[in-house]
Amino acid sequence: MADRRLVCLAALALAFTGCGGGEARPPQKGTHASGAGGSGGTGGTGGTPPPAQGRVLTGADDGFAGRLSVGQTARLRLPLPEGGQEPTAEGDAVLLIRISNVTGTGHREWELRAVHPGTTRISIPRPSTPTPSTLTLTVT
After folding, report:
1. Are 96 and 87 in contact, with CB atoms under 8 Å apart?
2. Computed from CA positions of residues 28, 31, 34, 37, in that sequence, does the dihedral angle turn out positive or negative?
3. Is 87 exposed, middle or buried (0-12, 13-18, 19+ CB in 10 A)?
4. Coil, strand or helix: which one is 119?
5. I need a labelling partner for 52 at 20 to 30 A (CA). Which of 27, 96, 124, 131 fits?
6. Neighbouring-strand partners of residue 138
7. CA 72, 110, 117, 120 torsion: positive or negative?
8. Cα 108–112–113 angle (5° rounding)?
């Protein structure tokens, strides 16, 4: 079982670093939406949010606005203790599916699965402030 997890982790590392062969990938631009004007934005693609497929999002991604197609997934990983406040989803385009922590890493993780077209806003509680982090996912 542990060997299989290592293989999966290695495959994920290759996928996220672009070291899986083929052409080198340039860094993605515009992966975080900006609240008002400024240099953030959506990468100059006419207001289309960047893809979220395969991303691992955290509370530090506050304000992220991304897109998924039906059937695609992303992950949400938070360093919250068991029994802490859970993230919530407003909208039903994306399911927030809790993943069991079998390794005892101190992190909790959720799969963000796009199930039908629409928009879902995910609120992530922050222990240090009453204002939650937010992620917005648009499903096409």
Report:
1. yes
2. positive
3. buried
4. strand
5. 131
6. 67, 119
7. negative
8. 140
Residue type, 52: A
30-50: pLDDT as tens digits: 443 333 333 333 344 457 788
Instruction: List residues bridging with 134 in a β-sheet.
Output: 123
**Alpha helices for the chain (secondary structure H):** 2-17
What type of residue is 110? W
Q: What is the pLDDT of residues 9-29, one digit of tens each?
A: 555 444 444 444 433 333 343
Residues in the chain: 140
- Cβ neighbours around 33 below 10 Å, total: 18
**Strand intervals (E) in 20-63:** 56-57
CA–CA gap between residue 30 and residue 41 (Å, rounded): 6
